[in-house]
Amino acid sequence: MMTPVLITAAALALLAGPLGCFVVWRRMAYFGDGLAHSALLGVAISLLIGISNQLGMILIAIAFAVALIWLRTQRLLATDTLLGILAHAALSLGIVSMALLGMEDAEVHDYLLGSLDSVSPDILPILVLGSGLSLGLLMRLWPGLLLMTTSEELAHAEGVPVRVYEFLLMLLMGVVVAGAVQLVGALLITSLLIIPASTARLFAKSPEAMGVGGSLFACLSMLIGLPLAQQMAVPIGPAIVSFSVAVFLVVLSAKLLMDWAKSKKA
């Protein structure tokens, strides 16, 4: 089963790379955490109404994004406060609901930290196809998202439907969470978006180069972290993230050394 899983992981990583750029640029890390925490509630909903886990997580992601956008328009609380409330409410409700539905602590643990045992082989081709379609949509939206990230006023002036693009960006993040949460785990899934993109940012000369670099680093983390976790018999999510952090530190050290060398020559 490892080969199909690695192919699926690579497909998800290719989407996570450029999507993570917008998470970094737009400072959406806290939203990513909230969305990941809501994944457990999506699993509970899927068990309750008899649909696939991934579809349940995507539906909850849509509800999470809509709730955040609506509450933000009310201007009652700061965005980070709203995210904190929604994230912890969804996480708590998800864990309680899964317990009431008869899921054992070990199963909940697998969703929190990732496990191949919870991955159904039947869903892998759907995840690959969904990742490919989502990546195509992201590339189609790329110019507008980039303009919106630079200046929302300018994006409005150019006719970009900012709120629609913002919702679609959140939805694509939901697709990554739904696809990768069983591999990386709900507690660490946001790292797959942030760390590879941040690594690529250290040397990228353009937004496109950062997106490609983010995909490459995300793929590297997935393709090495998964077999490493299996070999060492450790949780998959922490293994992938630990390797990703190690790559980030190596690239950061190389950049600092190069900058130091340049300053010496100057």
Describe this structure in words.
The structure is a single chain. Helix content is 83%, strand content 0%. The chain has helices at residues 2-25, 29-37, 39-49, 53-74, 79-100, 105-113, 124-150, 152-157, 162-184, 189-201, 207-232, 236-265. It is mainly α and 266 residues long.
Q: Biggest sheet, in brief? A: none
CATH C-level class is Mainly Alpha
Share of helical residues: over 70%
Integer count of domains? 1
What is the CATH superfamily label? ABC transporter involved in vitamin B12 uptake, BtuC
* Residue share in β-strands: under 5%
Question: What spatial form do the alpha-carbon principal axes imply?
Answer: globular
**What gap, in angstroms, lies between the N and C termini?**
54 Å
Number of helices: 12
Number of strands: 0
- What order do the helices and strands follow? HHHHHHHHHHHH
Integer average pLDDT: 86
Oligomeric state, counting identical vs distinct chains: single chain
User: Which fold name is given in CATH as the topology?
Assistant: ABC transporter involved in vitamin B12 uptake, BtuC
Uncertain stretches of 5 or more adjacent residues: none
Derived from helix and strand composition plus strand pairing, the structural class reads mainly alpha
CATH architecture annotation name: Orthogonal Bundle
Radius of gyration: 19 Å
